[in-house]
Amino acid sequence: MRRFHAIAALAVALLLLVVASTGALLSLQPALNRVADPALTPGVSVAQLADAVAARHVRVDAIRIGRDGAATASFNDGAGRETELIDPRSGEGLGAYTASPFFRFVTDLHRSFLLGDGGRVAVALTALGLLALSLTGFALLARSLGGVRKMFRPIRGDRTRRLHGEIGRLALAGFLVSSLTGVVLAAMTFDLVPSSNREAPDVSASGGPAAPIRTLSGLTAVDVADLKLLKFPGASGVFLMRSDAGEATVDPATGAVLSFVVTAPEVRMEQWALALHGAHGLWAFALLLGVCSAGAPVLGATGLLLWRRRRAHGATMPENAAAEIADTIIFVGSENNSTWGFAKSLSRALAAKNFGVHVAAMNEVGPRHLRAKRWLILTSTYGDGAAPTSAKKFLERLAGLDARIPVAVLGFGDRNFPQFCGYAQRVAEAFSSRVWPLLLPMKRIDRRSPQEFAQWARGLGDALGCALVVEHIAERPETQDLELIGREIYGEAVGAPVAILRFAAPILPEFAAGDLLAVQPPGSDMPRFYSLASSTRDGMAEICVRLQAGGLCSTFLHGLTPGERIAAFVRHNPSFRPANGFGPLILIGAGAGIAPLAGFVRANHAGRPVHLYWGGRSPASDFLYEHELAQSLADRRLTTLRTAFSRHDGAPAYVQDRVAADAHSLRALIAEEAQILVCGGRDMAHAVRETLDRIVRPLGLDLATLRTHGRYLEDVF
After folding, report:
1. Superfamily classification of domain 316-464
2. What are the φ/ψ torsions at residue 32 (nearest 5 degrees)?
3. 544 versus 148: which is more confidently predicted?
4. 3-state DSSP call for residue 161?
5. pLDDT of amino acid 156
6. For residue 558, what is the enclosing H or E element?
7. Are residues 173 and 138 in contact, defined by beta-carbon separation less than 8 angstroms?
8. Residue 491 C-beta-side C-alpha neighbours within 13 Å
C-alpha cells in the first residue's frame, strides 16, 4: 500500500500541484463575492425581481443567478446587448457586470490546463490519483496510529514525518470531497453517466395581452433563492424558468405554468457535485477546501523527502522479492537507520546464493510473511533496553500470529550500556516462549562491528548449507562543515569542564531540540553524538560537551576556538521530544544532559506548564544555562526550576532527591497526563527511574505503562 501510495503521488505530482494551487485560489472567489455582492436571501419572489428589472429597461432577455451567487440581468435598451449586476432583493442595477479575467483564467487552468478536451482528461486522471492518495494515505495513517479509532493520537516521528501526517490528517476530508466530486464531474463531462432524457414538451402561450409580471402566479410561487435562470418571452412567447426543482414554462398573459419538467437525477448529482467541488454559494466551506488544497504542496514536498529517505536507507531494495514468494524474510529494527545497511549487505549476499529475500521493518510483520521458510531478525536497541522506532509494534503483532518458522535474532548495541542489546534479547525470549525453532543462538554485535557481523553470517551460511560471505562496509554519512561561533566553559573549578558550543553554517540542516549532532572527530571514522539544545530556527547548532579523560572527540571539541570548523551531520531523534498539545512537561536531567531540556524550554513560546529538575556539582562553577533559565522563568516559558548540587557547601543533593521531595506535586501533574522526559548519564537515569516508580505507584501506574503511552521518555548516555 505504501508503494502504491508513492507511485500515485509521483504519477500525478506536477498535475496535482497545478490543480491544488488553482483550487486554493478559486476557493477565495465565493468569499470575495460575498463581500462585494448583495447576499442572495429568501423572501423575494421571482415575479417581484423580474418586474423590478423590467421596469428599468426597454427589453430584458434574461436574469441569471450564477453559481457564485451573483445575480445578473442581460438587456437591450437600443445600444446592443448589455449585462448588469443587480441586487437580488430589489432588482436595482449595480453597474455593468464583467467576469474577472483572472478567475476566468484560473478556472480554465483548473479544469483543463488550458488544453481543451485533452486537458480535461488529464484533470480527470489527476482527480482519480488524488482519490487514491487520500484513501491509501488514510489507511497508512490509521495503521501507523493503531487503528481508525486512534486517528487523533499524536503522530510520532521526526519533523518531516509529523508534518506530513498532521497536514494529511487535517486535509483528508477536503481531499476526499474534492477528488470524489472531481471524478463525478469528469464522468458527467464525458457522458459516462446515463441520461434520463427528460425533455420539455412543446407549448404555446394563450396569446392574450401580457399581464404585469408581478401578478404572474407561476413566477410568484418561486423564491429568488431557488432561481437559476429566467428567460423573458422571445420567439417562444413564454417565460422559461429554471430552478432547483426543475424547468417550467409560464404564460405571460395568465401566469399559468404551461409545462414543468422535474430536474433529472443526473442533473441533481451534477448540481451537488458542483456545489461541493466549487462550493458555490457556500463561501465558508469554500475557504475550508482552499486551506486543504493549500496543504497539497507541503504534503508533496514532505512525501518526497520521506520517499527518498526510505530508498536511501534500504526500505526499498532492487533485489527485494515480494513477501508472499520470498523464502527468507529479513526484519529490521532500527532507530537511526544504520541497521538497514547491515540488512542490505546480508540481503545481497543471500540473493547471490539464489535465496528469495524480502527485507521489511519489524513493524510490518503480518500474515503475508508466514509463507517464508525462515526469518532473520536484525534489531538495534533504543536507550536502556527499549524498542527502536521501526520495531515498536513487533512483539504486539507477533503475538497475533500462529506459526513456527525457523528464526535467528541478531542484536546491535553498545556494551557500555547495562541493557546491551536488551530489546533483541526480549525478541529472542518471545520466540523461545512460543517454541519457534532457532537457526542460530541469539548473537550480539558491539558498536556495529563488521567483523562480528561477518562471523555471524558465516554461521548462518553453515546453518543454511552454503558458504555465506558478507563484507559490510558502513556508508559514511555526508557531513557538512560547521563553524564555531561561540563557547562558554563551566565546571573547571570542580575538575569537570563542560562546554556550551554554538556552531553556524550558511545553510543549516533541519533539526529540533532533542535531535543529535553527530561530530566526526579527526582521526576516527566513528561519529560521536551530542544532543542539540537548539533548533534550525535559532540559526545555530548548540551542544553541551563534558570533557572526558582521554576522550578523543570531547578533547577535540574543547580545544576549538571561534572560527574553527568541525565536520558533522544531524541525526533526528523523534523518540525524545515533547508531545504535541499543552499538557504539563516534567523535565529531569543532570550535567550536560540539560542541553535538550533547555532547548524544550526555549521553544515553549505557547507557555505550557514546564517543570525542570536539574543536577550539577557546584552552583558557583557549573550552573549551566543559569541566566537563560532565569529569563525563561520571567517569560513564563518555564514554570518551576528545581536544582540540586552534589558539592554544595550548604546542602549537597542529587536531582533524584529533589524529585523525591516533590512527590506530591509531581503525582498531581502525572495524574493530569503530564509527560516526563529524562536526559543524562545512566546512573542518574537509574536513580530517577526508581524514584519516579515509587511516586506513580499510588496512581495505579508504573513507568513501563507510562513509557508505552509515550509519557515517559529517556535519552541516556
Report:
1. Flavodoxin domain (3.40.50.360)
2. -65, -40
3. 544
4. helix
5. 63
6. helix 552-558
7. no
8. 24
The answer to whether the beta carbons of residues 470 and 357 sit under 8 Å apart is no
Q: Report which of 272, 270, 265 is spatially closest to residue 198, judged by C-alpha positions.
A: 265
556-612 pLDDT, tens per residue? 999 999 999 999 999 888 778 898 889 999 999 999 999 999 999 999 999 999 999
77, HSE (Cβ side, Cα atoms, 13 Å): 10
Amino acid at 366: G
Residue 110 is inside which H or E element, if any? helix 101-112
Fold observed for domain 480-571: Elongation Factor Tu (Ef-tu); domain 3 (2.40.30)
Distances (CA, A) of 693 to 76, 132, 699, 712: 86, 47, 10, 11
523 or 563, which is more confident = 563
CATH of domain 585-716: 3.40.50.80
CA distance 653 to 619: 12
Are the C-beta atoms of 394 and 366 separated by less than 8 Å?
no
User: Greater confidence, 34 or 468?
Assistant: 468
Residue scoring higher pLDDT (545 or 496): 545
Share of the chain residues as helix, strand and coil, in percent rounded to the nearest 5: 40, 20, 35
Residue 437 has what pLDDT? 95
What pTM value is reported for the model?
A: 0.54
CA distance 652 to 244: 82
- Bigger pLDDT: 693 vs 141: 693
